[in-house]
Amino acid sequence: MSNPNSSNYHVYRRKVNARNGRRRAAVLMALLALLLLAAGAVMWLRNNDPLPASAAVQATAEEAAAAFTAATAAPSPTPAPATPRPETPETATAESAEEEPYAPRRLLQQVDTAAWDTSARVAATLNQDYQNTDHRMVALPMLGTVTDDYFNTVTFVGDSLTSGLGIYNTGYLNAHYAAYMGAGPDVIVNNTTVENLVTKATETPIETIVASQPDYVYLLFGTNTMVSPNNEDRLLAYYERMIDVLRENLNPGVIIYIQAIPGVQEDVVQTRPGLDNARIAAVNDQLANLALRKGCYFVNIREALTKTDGSLIDEYDVGLDGVHLNPAGYQAWSDYLATHTAWNRRSIYIGENPNYIFGS
């Protein structure tokens, strides 16, 4: 006897299979319709396009080729190089004329290596006239402290201010002096016969300076000359000529120091209008310029002897005229000189040599 549930199952399966068949048929019909539509669209495009697809592709390729040909046949101009640096007769050679336009040029004159140990004077190319130089910027900086023996071969040249260094024990009694009352640089230039305030000898200054055979000469003039106003040009002219006279008579290796003119007490200007501290500072600027031009060292002793306003420190005033110094002032002056010298390998320093490098 058959199972009724089994017959029901077969009926159900037939219904499911029939439904799935209808679904597949519908999908196939839809795909076929899409294919027909696509084919119709292709036919329509072929019938309505003015150029066949192959012709359109060919035309596009021809246009691109024509554009490339035009670009390569007439390239854009290369930017012109910068105007070359003009060559001097020394640097212009036949070889440089044949070099490529961008080849590096020789910046220095060609050197004849066969004559490397010779020298010749070269014309100055820079303006060597120093103007408006602040004397504080030109002055020698502090270095090591030299021993007193350094001043054995120093000759101080100046007026009565300088003489105190050779009279007071706070100065340098071991140095040589050419110091004269009321003197200016014209005393040296004119070879005037005067009395030495330290040695009391009557002499011509240049002979005394040469006889001392100095290694170093320290100059200080200006206070006496500046008592009269409006004579800065005269002072500087004589100062420069004095340096020339010294160089003409001394050994070439002698080093010359120009010392700054110290300030004076504030009330001095009332009786001596030329000794205005602002004017003294301005003249010191010119003396610093002179030192630069003449190859001398400038020593700003004013830094040790004056206050910030440029006037003489009260404790250093001898109390007579507001200009001259007492022993304490000369101690400050001499201490400053010992710590402000140009370095020299011959100098002996207290403590370690400030510029000692590998035994130099």
How would you portray this structure in words?
- The protein has 360 residues and is an alpha/beta fold.
- 42% of the residues lie in helices and 7% in strands.
- It is built from twelve helices and seven strands.
- Strands 2-1-5-6-7 form a five-stranded parallel β-sheet, sandwiched between helices. Strands 3-4 form a two-stranded antiparallel ribbon.
- β5, α8 and β6 form a beta-alpha-beta unit.
- It starts with a helix and ends in a 22-residue tail after the last helix.
- 26% of the residues are buried.
- About 13% of the residues have low confidence.
List how many beta strands DSSP finds: 7
% residues in beta strands? 5-15%
From the alpha-carbon coordinates, what is the Rg to the nearest angstrom?
49 Å
Order of helices and strands: HHHHEHEHEEHEHEHHEHH
- Amino- and carboxy-terminal Cα gap: 132 Å
The parts where pLDDT drops under 50 for at least 5 residues are 50-61, 64-79, 81-99
Global mean pLDDT: 80
Shape: rod-shaped
Largest sheet: 5 strands, parallel
